[in-house]
Amino acid sequence: MVNKPSQIPKSWGLDTGFMIVPTYERMIVFRLGRIRTPQGPGMILLLPFIDSFQRVDLRTRAFNVPPCKLASKDGAVLSVGADVQFRIWDPVLSVMTVKDLNTATRMTAQNAMTKALLKRPLREIQMEKLKISDQLLLEINDVTRAWGLEVDRVELAVEAVLQPPQDSPAGPSLDSTLQQLALHFLGGGLSSGAGGAPPPGPADAVEMVSEVEPPAPPGGSGPSLKQPVAEGLLTALQPFLSEALVGQIGACYQLNVLLPSGAQSTYFLDLTTGHGRVGHGVPDGIPDVVVEMAEADLRALLCRELRPLGAYMSGRLKVKGDLAVAMKLEAVLRALK
Q1: Contact by Cβ (8 Å): 49, 114
Q2: Region class of 42: left (phi > 0), else alpha (psi between -120 and 50), else beta
């Protein structure tokens, strides 16, 4: 009984009271449930039965987002993962704000990657991985800085393309129909010139164009040659307009089409009321967006050989007004499927 009081403090001091914290760690101490300033590096004193603690590692660590299947904007299915490097810059926040910091950071990175890739076509993902990785870095840090954690590096990894884009030129059958329609107007109304049924396929149509084009003066083909290709293609859009498309876009477009002769022809696509309208001339009201393009580029857009974003980035499509509204033309092209 005489030795017991002297032995207890000795045991506390040697085994429990003192702890050594290395330079790369900090000790978060709770005294009677209240947090104290981070302790360390060096030797610190803990009061047994009163203090509780948690170690926080300040070194840079890394984890990988496992490859998962994602669908890009153009319908491609790809397997994408990412490597993420991070470090803790505020030990107190890292302990107080999130219970499982590693899991929360991993889920935040995966959600940011999914949202970023859903907005982009496959070609952009493959060509601009570094740019997308930098954007992911900023988006993840916007969330994790409040947790006392900072992401230093994100590297996007495209493992495999499981399914090619659905919007390929050889895909939908309507594309070939529009191409035949374009050849029909380019050829100057072959059915009336030939005096019989239209050619059965695109190959025959091309051969007939080369034969009929030289004798332009005969009466039946004259008016058709004067009709622009753009007017026929835009008129073909009318059956595909709908109330659902109007509700999705809700904008009016003015299309200034540059003809091969150098003249400019104006058309409108009004998707603000009813089922929508398309026609020659300026719209009734003020258009939301004015789009300028060549007649050949309009044909390429409607035949799904060219995408609005790609045409804009290459300078073949000029936009006056809200670019985001102009890119909604993609929804019109999807309606052609």
Answers
A1: no
A2: left
Reduced to 3 states (helix: H, G, I; strand: E, B; else coil), residue 4 is helix
Instruction: Check if the beta carbon of residue 272 is closer than 8 Å to that of residue 250.
Output: yes
Task: With cut-offs at 50, 70 and 90, classify the pLDDT of residue 224.
Answer: very low
Query: What is the layout of strands, in order, in the sheet containing 25-31?
Result: 34-35, 25-31, 51-57
Strands (DSSP E) found in 72-217:
77-88, 149-163
| 114 C-beta neighbours (distance < 10 Å), count | 14
Q: Output the 3-class SS for 322-333.
A: CHHHHCCHHHHH
The rounded mean pLDDT for the chain is: 76
Q: Which pLDDT does position 228 carry in this prediction? A: 53
Instruction: Render pLDDT for 99-143 as a digit per residue (tens, 0 to 9).
Output: 888 899 999 999 999 888 888 888 888 888 899 999 999 999 999
Cα 233 to Cα 78, 201, 238, 271: the distances in Å are: 34, 18, 10, 17
Please count the CA atoms within 13 angstroms of the CA of 221 that sit on its side-chain side.
Answer: 21
